[in-house]
Amino acid sequence: MRPFITIMALMVFLTSCNPFAPGVDFSADELDSILGDPKTVDGVFQNLKYAYTFRDTSIYGQLMNSDLTFIYRDYDRGVDVSWGRDEEMRATNGLFLNVQRLDLVWNNIIAISTDSGNTLINVSRNFNLTVTFNPSSIERADGYANLVLSRKAADQPWQIIRWRDESNF
What we know:
By secondary structure, this protein is α+β, with helices and mostly antiparallel strands. The chain contains four helices and six strands, in the order H-H-H-E-E-H-E-E-E-E. The protein has a single domain, classed as Nuclear Transport Factor 2, Chain: A.
């Protein structure tokens, strides 16, 4: 009788295992994350790409300093237009909600300079942005993002305090 119970218990155990549902991999470390380290300039750009790709205002908002100034050129009126963080978050949220897809490609860094305390950095970088509103309405923007990043100390994350959008959008 005992072998019968052992065989039955073994069959129940084996039939309850699903080889197509592997266990959770706990070996991945923080470096494998799709988010970048905001303590690095490259991490800031990686997180901007993530925020646009996944239309994630929570990640986007973490990159924007409370004193942010966003500037773009209104070519129709021939003037520069600027606004602060709150309006930038509203505008970006509206964009994220009203598109089907955003594809942001960061190209070469054109210029980069930092202060002696490593708490302020100017970065100019070329980008391509494809905005898909729907399959028949796709817009493309090309240009430069001129960013001023700030942090309180060298071990703190960078935040954008000034963003000049020099694109054709």
